[in-house]
Amino acid sequence: MSSGAAWEPVIGLEIHVQLKTRTKMFCGCELSFGDPPNTHTCAVCLGLPGALPVVNAQAIHYALMVGMALDCELAPRSIFHRKNYFYPDLPKGYQISQYDIPICGPGRLGDVRIHRAHLEEDAAKLVHVGGSGRIQGASESVVDFNRGGTPLVEIVTEPDVASAAQAREWLTLLRTTLRQLGVSDVNMEEGSLRCDANVSIRPVGSDALGTKTELKNMNSFRFLERGVDAEIARQIALVESGGEVEQETLHYDPATGTISSLRSKEEAHDYRYFPEPDLVPIVLEERMLEAARAVLPELPAQRAERYERELGLSADSARLFAFRSELGDYFEAAAAVDGEQPQVLANWISGELVARIGDADPASSQVTPAAIAELVGLLRARAIQQGAAKQVLDVLVAEGGEPAAIVEAQGLGALGGGDELAEVVSRALASDPAAVEKLRAGNMRAIGPIVGFVMRETKGRADGGEVNRLVREQLGL
Hints:
By secondary structure, this protein is α+β, with helices and mostly antiparallel strands. Helix content is 39%, strand content 18%.
């Protein structure tokens, strides 16, 4: 098989976001997660005859916030449609959604264009039970209607994503944006954020779009990245062997890394959309727009730009702290204590601290923002050296405390000039005559073993610049 260099992927994403309202989209049943099955239902969300839906105003408010955050065109007037299909988790035989007049039109987030974002209700939850049927070894499916009718915003991108890695990075930005808005828990494990990927390939440099397949409901960004990569490889192998890609819906199994077909991909006309006759149009009033604008927080993209503009952070550091808001909040709290060297502080948080605590929220660690700021301040003042600072951080992570007190208690203060350091340098030179000979001959790279000896003897407390000066002084260089 070819390496795939002659092909490029084209990826579009469809994201379902469960809104954090108190009640469902079209009835007064409370939202729940983990409650006993079928305990939050009524005639409306069960689709019983004669029950009429009423739109959740809070869901419209949240949809407007999402649209503003994604820089979408907001429709002055939008309507709901019935999306008709038959499945056990859809008691009415149709889903109330939006079709040709969504509440949020074209927009953009980062380098990916948004095609649309619209409101709809979620289906119920199918639970597949193995081996419990009437026939020995058979399986059955039961339905939990608690989730049925949950308000969703579906966000559909244009096919602007060029790799699985870019898809994962962009979805991270989207999730952080939605979390900052406060409109959703965006918890993939609980299903409040679900993502499908439409994947196709085309020859490099071509503008034509190939036949797309849809990977459904991947429950983590890591699995999504692996699944998209696997589907790209499958399509390339298929086409290069003389086959054709069929438009279908696929399932990726992260345990085996394999892709299997679920069904042929539906087209819009398959759903026989028609306007929902029981709901009036949504007409946006200025007071609704003002209410949504008033509660918009600083968004991740704006935060990253502020970090670069005002604090001089690198683009990578700014994006990391903006995309991982808990790191950004911690960094800002530390910078408020000592912000003289923002990039150095950022490096210690994103590098040394994150290496020790992993994905945990640093605010829940033993290391307070004031402590990490004090540690960086001690380094700047040359009160400690880099190696000793890492030892101090190890103690802070394990036990907490104040850096200066740890330095004092463990004797980690820096050694600058003076007789103590001069004596260690003298012993280092005496221990390595070969290195001394090379230094006298003008080969300054030979100083490495001498400096290493001094650092070992002083447990990283020696100032490297002062060691270099003393070596030259004692050798008369």
